[in-house]
Amino acid sequence: MATVAVGALVATTVGSLGASEASAQSSNSGDSLNLPPLSSGPAGSVESAETIARSSLGLIANGSLLNENAPTLAPLSTGVAPLSTASMSGPTGSLVTPALMGSTLAMSLIPVGSLASGTQILGTVLGPDAVTRGVGSLTGPGYAVPKPDPEITKTEVLNKKDETNPNVDGGLQVWTVTSKTMQRKVDVEVYLPTDEKKRQDANVLYYLDGVDTLNPSGFRTLTSGPNRVRDANVIGVAPTGAPGSNWTEWNEDDPHLGRNKWDTFLTEEFPEILDQQLGENKDRKYGVTGVSMGAGSALQVAAAKPGFFATAGGVSGCYSTTTDLGYETLRLSIETRGGNMTNMWGPRGSQQWQDRNLPDHADKLAGTKVFMSAATGAIGAEDAKRYGSDPGVLFSGYVLEAGTRECTNEMDSALNAAGVDHETFLMPTGVHNWSTFTPGFDKAMDYMLPLLAQE
């Protein structure tokens, strides 16, 4: 098995920022490695990254100790090198941070073709806490999922609260609603058009967050979405409080993640609530988008009810449920939050898991205009600027985003084969974090909002 090796781990000056990407070299992996020298630095930076790198080899150099049947995937599909000289440059021509160099070294040791294994070792080698800290879509204060309450017997709005946020120019309300199906309360952020006369006729864009489903949502605090939906006279809707749920319909209640019936909530219950609150509109159109866990979920919920969604968009997501890469991605989301995968769609390999494998059922999206975006995991300038002092962010972000790139390429091919109208935006650099989600999300808005906007 070949490994991706960094051509040179050397610091460059600001004058090198325009240089072309360093070429990746392949070599046969062996029992020993000639590691490049490491610069000294703060305790816990280079040293910890080197430990991560060496420990990772024992798990992924020959596939995985956890999964000996891990698939061999193609190298990053666009042929982009996993590191550019520009990425290695310090902002003022100084040496890059030791943590950045150490993390880059760790990434360079991951064998091409073992992205599923790389996803597995994140929780094993780094530990769940390190993975959670290191990935923007996974980070959050946590959420205590309520147990089903048998006294909740109908879907209704219990409370509406006007809220303000520095990122939102008005029109934000938080609706506390009950779900008859899940027998629980859900806090839903609702972003209303400024013109009240246009609210009844407005179309809807759902936003599905990453694995912790933050409250307040990433849509509210980290994206341009709230103001863009308002300007387009579209109702933005961001439900919260579904950590590790995959925003999907679970077969069984889970001791840690509660009762999850999100397909029903998004396509039946909340549309009824909107009609009750804003006036019935049988012609209302719906769109759904999300990042990370929410990206795969957005396309999943659209495929689960063909024709309901006018548009669906995924930013840095995975859409397969039957490949090892797709399964391990879901496992990382669910099991790090204490969930039992079997409670979702039954045992792996069951008919439900196969039915949910979107690349095999891309035709279910035939009536939906689809957007997808992904990067490569390669460290870009913005990644280095934001996260260069934290190897956990860069290493876990590399593995996860490289995986989403393969998932996105697979889904893109399936949509092409099925003749589904779609757009795919691929970025040459970017780890699995908001430095990548933000430009991908902005492109998603460019594609989706015109399909939902009012004059």
Automatic annotation (TrEMBL):
Residues 22-32 have a biased composition (Polar residues). InterPro entries: AB_hydrolase_fold, Esterase-like, Mycobacterial_A85_antigen. Residues 21-47 are annotated as: Disordered. Gene3D superfamilies: alpha/beta hydrolase. One of its GO terms (molecular function) is acyltransferase activity, transferring groups other than amino-acyl groups. PANTHER family: DIACYLGLYCEROL ACYLTRANSFERASE_MYCOLYLTRANSFERASE AG85A (PTHR48098:SF1), ENTEROCHELIN ESTERASE-RELATED (PTHR48098). This is Esterase family protein. It comes from Dietzia timorensis.
